[in-house]
Amino acid sequence: MAANDIPEVVTDSGAGKAEARRLLIEPLLASGMRRAPKMTSSAYEAYLDKLAGYLGYMTRPNLEQLGDILLNCGGGKKRDEFPVWVIVRRMAHLLQTPPAQGRPLHWSFLHSAWGERARTAGYHVAAYWWIREKRIPPSTDFALAEIKKLQADFEEDRDPEHQEWLARLTQHVDQIVGAGIEHRNQPQSAKSGKTAA
Predict the structure, then answer these.
(1) What angle do the packed helices 85-95 and 41-55 form, to 10 degrees?
(2) Which one of 34, 46, 103, 132 has the minimum C-beta count within 10 Å?
(3) C-alpha to C-alpha distance for 61 and 82, rounded to whole angstroms
(4) pLDDT tens digit string along 117-127?
(5) Are 99 and 12 in contact (CB under 8 A)?
């Protein structure tokens, strides 16, 4: 339950860190939740502070609802120890998915060697669209079949506006895949910023 285990999240439209503390953490503490005996006071405060920062993406109603849920998730023999990170995260994500961090999944996937294979096979544009919409990697045969069907649908639509949109999207996806190929083909020293001797 170390504070270092909690990732940073951009709080774009959520209530913010102060509200997460006010609406979630303080009510839980007031209800009798306490730190685990094996955790130092300073580590506990750091955990609560980092937790408030992470959960700041959530809306006020979802923070309040999360508090109600976490009242039943305490640790220890008396179930009165503040819930551990994995439980808080799981319950928070069930209520409200955090905003994407860094590169979105569709970008990361198509930037990888998988994207290059998808482009060679001719379904990278549909893969981009599918992953972006589903927000999961296409890791099953069924997902791949859906992507191939979507690519066929894209190509069958002969409406000029659709074809123009598809050309722009294809150019965008080609740039992502191409950047991944270029990145993988760089010498290791260039990737790490070191110059070759």
Answers:
(1) 10
(2) 103
(3) 21
(4) 999 999 999 99
(5) yes
